[in-house]
Amino acid sequence: MSIACLPSELWHRVIRHLTIMEDTCSLAMVSKYFYKLVEMDFKRECRNHVVYRLKGETWAYAFSNLGSRSYNTIIAKIEFYRDNAICCPFTGKIALALNDAYVLLTNIDFGLSEFTILDFSSYTNKVTRVNMINRGTELLVHSVTFVLVYDLVWMQTGKGSVICAWTHDLSVFVINDNDSVVVTGYRFGILIYSMKKRRIVFCNPNDDGRVRFKTFNAEMKRHLTYQDSWVEARNDNYPIWKLSRMKFTVLGSLKEIVNYSFGHRLSRNATAIGRFDENSGDTLVAGTSSNKVILQNSEAIFHVNEPITWIDVLHQPSKQYGFVSDLVIVGTEKSLIVFDVYNNKTMFHRDMPEGITCIKIGHLDEHKENVIVCGCGSTIWGIDFQGEDVFWTALGDDVNSIDLCDIDYDGMNELIVGSNGTEIKVLKQQSLLKDLIEGDPCVMIKTMGEGTFAFGLNSGVIGVYRKWERLWRIKTKHKIANLLIFPTVAGDDKPYLCCVWQNGKIDVRDTENGENYLKTQLDGEVSGSVVQRRDNQMDQLLVTYFNGRVRGVELNPDYDEAEDEIEVLHEYGQRKHNLMEELKNYEAAESGDRNQIGIPLNTQMDCVLELTEERGLLLHVHVTNDIPIKAILLFAEGIFHSECFSIHANEETSDMFTIIKPVKNTATDILMRVIIGAQGSTQLRVLEFDQSLPKFSTYVYMEKGAPAPEGYVDLEFSLRLDLLNRWLATHFLINEGMVLGMNDEQNWKVSFRCCYSKEVLQIEVIEGRLFVRHNFIEVVGEVVQSIVQSMEVKQMSSRAFFPKYQEQLVELIASMEDRYTTNDKLMAEWTERLNFIRETVVRAEDALVTDQTSKARKLYVRVAMLNRECVAQRQILMASVESLVTSLKKLNLLIKQNSQLKIGEDAHELVKECRKLLAAENFAALGKRLQVSGN
């Protein structure tokens, strides 16, 4: 019997008898099979023991050299290492306090080449100690005068970053490594700084003696985190501060408590809740498919002449005397309407030519008052409560969902936009701040707290971002209907993400990791959902259906042990079935068909990206020992039309090729699962492999050069060839050795050709200036933004020349001027004809009153003819308006492409000025501002 046929149980016994760590590491380095049997996370062990790894080594090999690889061995004084350095166990980052006010930031993975010096001399003359907190994203810097929080993501201190000024005999503790910082001291008391809220959340000075705190739970063997629930408990002569309740964990079930019907078919996203009567509580309001607004338990019906696309409620602040009703905000395919239900009047009515797809109410940027933010086609409008414009901006894609979130912690909300494109857009001051690439259109955005928001894609993917970092991402088979914060439990300030799916499925997940706590199924096609907050009672989740049915659920905290036992038994039954199937395979290998061919232990898989101008970008997968490949599953974002792409061979072969044609220039990782099996064998093996795809992976390097394209941009900034070479090697499929040899600034020039569009991209350095040449401005913009982000360029001047762009801009502006003139003329004619119809109707009614029946008949015939003409002219007008809207989309896309050639404030100012000129219909000045004629 070969060792490959030994059951894993026997190997586990062998491994348990290994007493020397070097033997365990050596066994783990034999193959992936033995690596899994060892059941050790060597990467985590290296981080816990601060063992560094060199480039090209495995973590198991690095840990096997623990005695000589410990990070403190490269520092002369061990006391200096213990007192001045810290290693993050989550990321492997190391912060080392050097002499005076400098901190060295590096990583135990030396292959990453991360070495950064942080200068704190502007804050203090001496850094005494450092702590790595918030999973390696922030640094706690101790000095003789204060304790400072430094953001390692943005490399800056944020607002409210100073925890406290230093006084005598202070002690600082980091609790749970990512939540709270506790400061105590004699005659000082206790101070708690929350890393989540980024402010001091608890302060109790005590001048009589030392205040003690209790944050360790002996039963759970871990520290507790601060949850706004500290109480004082006296113990003899000194107080002890401790948590009033344990950290809340969602247990229980969702029980149905509401079930009734409106009696009307409802529209999608047309459900909200508010208070419209002083004698009643919260009332559900919904929009019907027959263009009506209806209220729960009310006979009041408000008719709207257009299809309803969205309903929201504006909660007005209550006055000292008298009741103030909430306002109903209705979005339709052509307008925005605000109703005062209590007083039965329309507050204002705004025409919105593109129609409304989503509405959000809240504070945005520096605006102190609430703003009604409307997503209308490819534009976003900000409107105050008098119906006046606050701001207007446009995107290149249609808007699906919007929400407000202070994602950069500056005290002002940014606008998070989910669109039909592949990115989630973050806007600040109506300008694009950042694109978060997800690969599929985003249909739902929900703010979960400060700096945190959840998203849902039309492919069934949901996830959560916090400060540009994606916490988690889960793929499902269902279509998302809504994302909500539910339930909210007293004593726990942690928000839970409630996902309502279109098929009626509801689940509650942890915002931090996506763990599914609760789930239930309310069968039916969901049209909308809303959470009803109730004082001193459990929140209710109300779900509406297209057939008019309304069902509500709330959290049942009584844990059903019997139901839990059934789920546990089902889980163990499934495990038993899997183990029995595995046992059958072992028995068949030992006593079954000896002639059956297995897969040799030394079988390996190679994966190579091959880029040629003729064949394009190919992914070549090869398995050694002539083992046939049954199928390959590829998982990637933004490359395939779906998240998974499968390849099946018509004939058994150990080599498989597939063409990769990215939708756009984006860097991503391809996760491959290769299913292999020997000929005639019924057992298959799954091999996994990760392949990184550079941003410009479809551009083939032209060794002999190529004719220079006509369009170009000339960039002037502080240029460093080593950084430019590094950017080139990491963003293109090019030989690194060839790039490293390009050190001559006088002859630095590279040419590429896209293997699909056949367009040439040329990058050249001339007299210290960088020239990027391509015929399409959008490609040049992507290259420029990639370079400045990689090289961290802060200031740059640019000069561009793109004839095709300039020609398209001139034609578009000329056509828009004609369309505005035509629309004004059509609108004037339509208004004149409408007034003539009204006059004719009045004359016809007068004729009826005076018994002139014959005259009245002629006048009504004329009214019918005029009405048909008016309807036809209105259709022409609306077609012209739609054509103008399409031109506006194209123009905003040109503005965005032009702004990509600039950075920072220059780009923001360009966008702001162009939109002001566009709103003022000053097309002559707009054309000059967007000119790219090389001057």
UniProtKB/TrEMBL annotation:
InterPro entries: Bardet-Biedl_syndrome_2_prot, BBS2_GAE_dom, BBS2_hp_dom, BBS2_Mid, BBS2_N, BBS2_pf_dom, F-box-like_dom_sf, F-box_dom
Keywords: Cell projection, Cilium, Cytoplasm, Cytoskeleton
GO biological process, one term: non-motile cilium assembly
Residue ranges of every copy of the F-box domain listed in the record: 1-45
Superkingdom assignment: Eukaryota
Subcellular location field: Cell projection, Cilium; Cytoplasm, Cytoskeleton
GO cellular component: BBSome; ciliary basal body; membrane; motile cilium; neuron projection
Identification of the protein by name: F-box domain-containing protein
Organism, scientific name: Bursaphelenchus okinawaensis
